[in-house]
Write a structure and sequence with these properties.
Blueprint (H helix, E strand, L loop, with lengths): L2 E3 L6 E6 L6 H8 L14 H13 L3 E8 L2 E9 L16 E8 L9 H14 L6 E4 L6 H9 L3 E7 L4 E8 H8 L9
Parallel strand pairs: 5-6
Antiparallel strand pairs: 1-2, 2-3, 3-4, 4-5, 6-8, 7-8
Helix pairs in contact: 1-2
Length: about 190
């Protein structure tokens, strides 16, 4: 996977394929943490996390990556093909659509701007594939913090949808929308 230098004081963010067995204990501590309530695995046992990520690893249309901050585990990224999982029958996928989830590890020492840097690095990774034309997300409608964060990188909400596990806000970000948000003018920075 690629490395991203976020261009600020956050540090280097990199991604590597998730190892479901080696990384399960770490992931378990993340997904069961109270700050990960929207991940919907609060009551998961270690074996549940192993099983979930083994299934993802075995699947053709869903992939999980461990994100590293200066070489240390700090976030999780999943990408999926919405034609086959997550959003089947809930919207009309377009060629080049890629679904995404991300989770920042809980910490007692938050770094200002870190979550936005992670989301930017995730988007950079997804758009590094020239086949990706649009990133699709479906966060819980009540997760206002992630809606605001998504907007900062270019996501535009389309509509609410009913998934089996939640009411979600279907949102899209094209390559152009993302790049426009990354431009110096959009960040209030002089060229």
């Amino acid at each position: 996977m690629s490395a991203a230098n976020t261009g600020d004081t956050v540090g280097a963010l990199t991604l590597r394929p998730l190892d479901p067995l080696r990384d399960a204990e770490l992931l378990h501590s993340w997904v069961t943490h109270p700050k990960a309530a929207y991940w919907m695995m609060q009551d998961a046992k270690l074996q549940d996390v192993e099983r979930e990520y083994m299934a993802i690893a075995a699947g053709e249309h869903h992939h999980a990556y461990l994100g590293l901050h200066d070489g240390r585990p700090a976030f999780l990224m999943e990408k999926y093909d919405p034609r086959y999982i997550e959003l089947v029958g809930l919207y009309e996928p377009e060629p080049g659509d890629v679904g995404m989830h991300f989770l920042v590890a809980p910490t007692d020492r938050p770094v200002h701007g870190f979550t936005r840097a992670v989301l930017t690095a995730v988007m950079d990774e997804l758009f590094a594939d020239p086949r990706t034309r649009r990133v699709v997300v479906e966060p819980d409608v009540t997760n206002e913090a992630v809606h605001a964060l998504n907007e900062t990188v270019g996501f535009v909400p389309e509509r609410e949808i009913d998934k089996p596990e939640k009411r979600a806000l279907l949102s899209f970000c094209t390559r152009e929308q993302f790049l426009n948000r990354r431009s110096p003018a959009s960040r209030g920075v002089s060229p």
